[in-house]
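Attaching the record inline, Q. Sequence:
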Amino acid sequence: MRKSPCLSISYFVISFALVLESVAFGATAREGAFRLVDVWPRGKLRPAEVKLPLRVLARFSQEVVGRRDVGSSTPVAIVLEGSGAREGRWRDERTYELTLSEEESVPGREIRWSVPAGLRDAKGRSLTGERSFSFVLPSLDLLAVRQ
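Structure, as predicted:
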C-alpha cells in the first residue's frame, strides 16, 4: 500500500507550522519581561484550601536561580509584612516556596507578602509588574456549644 503524496505534504506542512508556532511562542516567553506569573495563595481562602503547614508559592516568568541552586534556601525572595525576610527554598529554577509557621497561620488573619524590588532573574533583568499580594485565612466557625 502506497502513501498518498498529498497526505505526506499535508503532514509536513502541519508539522512545520506547529514547529514555527512553538518556536515563536517559546522565544516570546524566554525574552519577555521578568515578572511574577503565578502566586498562591491569593484572596480569601476556603477551609478546604488550607493544608498545614501553609506554603506561599511564587512562580516567575524567567529562571532566577541555576539548577545547582534548586532546593537551596534564600531569605530574599519573599518578605512577609511584619516578619521581614524569611528563609524559603527554590522548588525549581522559577518557583520559590515559603512555609509559614503555625503561629503565622492564625484563622481569620490577613497575610500580606511581597517580592523585593531588587530581585533579578538569572540574566540580571529587574522584576517588573505586581510585587505585593495578600490572602486571608478562613475564620473558625462555631459548630456547637455544650453546657
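Residues 1-31 form one domain. The chain has one helix and ten strands.

More tomorrow.
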